[in-house]
User: What shape does this take?
Amino acid sequence: MSEARNLRKTTYRLYPTPKQAAALAAILRSHQQLYNAALEERIDCYRKTGRTLSFADQCKSLTALRAELPEWAQAANCSSQQMTLRRLDKAFAAFFRRVKAGQTPGFPRFKSLGRFPGMSFKSHGDGWRFTPAENWRHGSLRLSSVGQIAARGKARQGGDIRASEVLHRDGQWYLSLTLDIGQPQREREQDGALGFDWGVETFLSGVTHADAVVCIDNPRWWHSEKERVIALQKAVSSKRNKRSNRRRKAVRKLADARAKTARRRLDWMHKTTAKLAAQFALVATEELQIARMTRSAAGTMEDPGKNVAQKAGLNREILDTAPALFTSLLRCKVLETGGEWVEAPTRKLKPSQRCPKCWAVQKKTLSDRTHSCAQCGHTEPRDIASARVVLRWALEAEDTGREPRLYGAA
Ligand SMILES: [Zn+2]
Assistant: This one.
């Protein structure tokens, strides 16, 4: 039986001394030169023979390439150099794939030092070793020919170190570690099930196996920051002269506000999804339909949102990506903690039209905020009813493709 692999990437910021930074830059330069030399070799070979070199071909000629490179490059980690050749090979594979698909992709390009992302390492211990500090908070990276480099950051969960990348971005150095966290263990008290749907009034409406309602509202700061971005948008569009200093300043302010709001929102989502994933062993929702989200954000026919046109842009930008982003974060965290993630087929199930008690389908318009069943009389808020349908489907239906299991049973 093969060992369970559950790989996760985590990033630490590296703090090299000036001397170490110079050594890192030298390694980066050697990889950039190798990449460009290998690209040249491919172009050259094709021009002369009409043949495309493979990754294996280039690994063979790596020895020759190493001899041609300066001495400090020859000292570099060989398997790491192969990874750089692999990166070029991937660039070519992507190029040919897109050509085949009838697109017109750009040919793989020579890379300047500034555009060269970094270098990869595999086999922990082969020229590099990361030693995490307590609880995987901070640590240090030992890199041959560079030394011991301080690293700051935190892995949410420790594991076996499988591979790493040393990345250079905006003048800073980062370490991206690939950890195998193994098969996660689930605590008994996390053994609940949740079904949820997106709301118009609330961000998320959910219901648990124990019939408890879980509603998540947008955080309090969300509305005021959204209004601020809208005001800044107005300020930009009121400055007609596109080259004026005042307009440039307003654009800058808007960009800063947007970035800040997006960061805060992402942070909030990480925290909220982590809490839900820790609480529930099964999470069910319907397949996300972007069209539906856009419509609900714009208000309803009877009650259109204020400044619909102006808000539409912002909604597309921040609001509408929220459910998709939230869903993918939650999905990742549920699976990481060993939980089950179930997506109901919206078209077939029609969660917003179906009665969670008697399963009858009853047409509703978007403005019907309450589910009131004509068959059995069951009445509750629309989003809760829809969440309940999804949950019931996930736990009871046979076409979910999952093994039936009892959730929340004492
Ligand atoms: Zn009913």
User: Anything to note?
Assistant: The two ends are 33 Å apart (CA to CA). The first strand starts at residue 7 and ends at 15. Residues 355, 357-358, 360, 373, 375-376, 378 surround zinc ion (CB under 6 Å).
